TrEMBL record:
GO terms for cellular component: plasma membrane. It is a multi-pass membrane protein. One of its GO terms (molecular function) is transmembrane transporter activity. PROSITE patterns: MFS. The lineage of its organism: Bacteria, Bacillati, Actinomycetota, Actinomycetes, Kitasatosporales. It comes from the Bacteria. This is MFS transporter. Keywords: Antibiotic resistance, Cell membrane, Membrane, Transmembrane, Transmembrane helix, Transport. InterPro entries: MFS, MFS_dom, MFS_trans_sf. PANTHER family: BLR6921 PROTEIN (PTHR42718:SF46), MAJOR FACILITATOR SUPERFAMILY MULTIDRUG TRANSPORTER MFSC (PTHR42718). The chain crosses the membrane at residues 21-45, 57-75, 87-106, 112-135, 147-168, 174-196, 208-228, 234-252, 273-296, 308-329, 341-361, 373-393, 405-427, 447-470. It is found in: Cell membrane. Residues 21-474 form the Major facilitator superfamily (MFS) profile domain. SUPFAM superfamilies: MFS general substrate transporter.
Length: 486
């Protein structure tokens, strides 16, 4: 009996520390997610101040996303070697310094370079979070709750960033969307030092696959660059860049098969559930990230909203996401299984995108923006925790850190590629109509309609892929899918 009392006492003593650690991890994640979206509403102000071209403006976002996505696997591996806490706190420091550099930028080159440095710091912070979370909460029910909280922070943070970007840009100027990270970053860094448990790590002597990291990062950067500049470069130049990118991806794959300590162990992809969940996420995030960017521009450039009003218009999304994820997500998944919940969420996302594809020139917020916004929020609140649980359950215990890095990588890759494709299509459609003599606002709205229609197709493709690949007996019953043997 005394042993049981002592054991329970130790458990109660550990619980506040674990949940305090979760708060710290979520705070670091929230800062990086906010900053990935806070620039959306400020884009017109940044463009007018620094003179970015239409396609060039997308690099204010892509300069952050591409190093972020390209480096996640490498810094995730380094986190295993030096310890998750060291990597997380170092990432917070780099991200905070880079935010200050963004805030004082007075030229296009300075801002893009500082955004790339932010991407590096964001990768260092984010790569280790999910693995640390799973280690903190090994018990399935508590782990489901922790993942729901983590997913709610990440998902709601994206839409909340749009509001903060509008408020800060209109009340002060666009520089403050970055400078606000200085006090937040310092507080998060101090809290991480206080609450996160130290980890020894395996030691740098075990090494990491730096050539592999260079290959995959170069391939990702070239892929997005080829898509973003396709309209200006022409078909021939785009195909050349695409071929080089494909060659780099192929070289990376060969390298991972032969390297003594690969950055990405290819046997991980033997899990159909893990591979399928990551593929579904690429499509889902690609459509949703494009919606946040183009939706904000639609409100400003077509409906004539200011920055603050645009940010306010997005506020129902984080509220709905937070309420649904924290109140229903874990219980719904436990009852119906992640597979059914994921499909339901993707159906709602597809419906929301389809409604947005109307994008009328004389639209109103209550009739044309709010209904699809709420559908997208409800769909994302259902789909994101479900796809996260499926992706992590498809990996063996010793691959949890790697699976976390891969999941974060596909999330960022999906966002950057979706943004590149949808913005390029919208700009090309608008330019074509303008050259034909169409009114600027009407041509812009037509470009956004095309982007939303393509985003609808992407969401439907994610739904079809999930329905065909992720269906398993355990996935539909609420039990984690069986792991693939070594």
């Amino acid at each position: 009996m005394s042993f049981l009392i002592e054991s329970r006492t130790r458990q109660r003593q550990r619980t506040p520390s674990r949940w305090a650690s979760l708060v710290v991890l979520c705070a670091g994640t929230l800062m990086t997610v906010l900053d990935g979206n806070v620039v959306t509403v400020a884009m017109p102000a940044i463009q007018g101040d620094l003179g970015f071209s239409g396609p060039g403006l997308a690099w204010v976002v892509n300069a952050y996303l591409i190093p972020f996505g390209g480096l996640l696997l490498l810094v995730g591996r380094l986190g295993d070697l030096v310890g998750g806490k060291r990597m997380f706190t170092a990432g917070l420091a780099v991200f905070t310094v880079a935010s200050v550099l963004c805030g004082v930028a007075t030229s296009q080159a300075t801002l893009v370079a500082a955004r790339a440095l932010q991407g590096i710091g964001g990768a260092m912070t984010s790569a280790v979070v999910l693995g640390m979370l799973v280690a903190l909460f090994p018990e399935p029910r508590e782990q489901a709750r922790a993942i729901a909280v983590f997913s709610a922070v990440g998902a709601a943070g994206g839409a909340l960033g749009t509001f903060l970007g509008g408020a800060l840009t209109q009340a002060l100027n666009w520089h403050w969307i970055f400078l606000i990270n200085l006090p937040i970053g310092v507080l998060a860094w101090l809290a991480a030092l206080r609450f996160l448990a130290p980890e020894r790590g395996a030691g740098l002597g075990r090494g990491a696959d730096y050539p592999g990291a260079a290959l995959v990062t170069g391939a990702l950067m070239l892929t997005v660059y080829a898509i973003v500049g396709a309209g200006d470069r022409g078909l021939a130049g785009t195909l050349v860049l695409a071929a080089v990118s494909l060659a780099l991806f192929s070289a990376f794959t060969v390298r991972q098969a032969r390297a003594p300590r690969p950055l990405l162990r290819l046997r991980l992809f033997r899990s159909r559930v893990l591979t399928g969940a990551n593929a579904v996420q690429v499509l889902m995030i690609g459509g949703m990230f494009g919606f946040q960017y183009i939706g904000a521009l639609y409100l400003q450039r077509v409906l004539g909203y200011g920055e603050l009003l645009t940010g306010t218009a997005f506020l129902p999304a984080p509220i709905a996401i937070g309420v649904l994820m924290l109140g229903l997500s874990a219980r719904t998944i436990a009852r119906f299984g992640p597979y059914r919940v994921l499909l339901s969420g993707l159906v709602l996302i597809s419906a929301g995108m389809a409604l947005l594809s109307r994008a009328p020139v004389d639209g109103t917020y209550l009739a044309d923006v709010l209904p699809p916004l709420l559908l997208l929020a409800a769909g994302f609140a259902a789909a994101m925790p479900a796809v996260t649980g499926l992706a992590m359950s498809g990996a063996r215990a010793e691959d949890a850190g790697l699976a976390s890095g891969l999941f974060n990588t596909t999330q960022v890759v999906g966002g950057s590629l979706g943004l590149a494709v949808l913005t390029t299509l919208a700009a090309s459609r608008t330019d074509h109509l303008r050259h034909g003599g169409a009114d600027l606002v009407a041509a812009t709205a037509s470009g956004y309609r095309l982007a939303f229609m393509v985003a609808t197709g992407i969401a439907v493709a994610a739904l079809v892929l999930a329905a065909g690949v992720l269906r398993t007996e355990r996935a539909t019953s609420g039990q984690p899918p069986a792991n693939t043997p070594r």
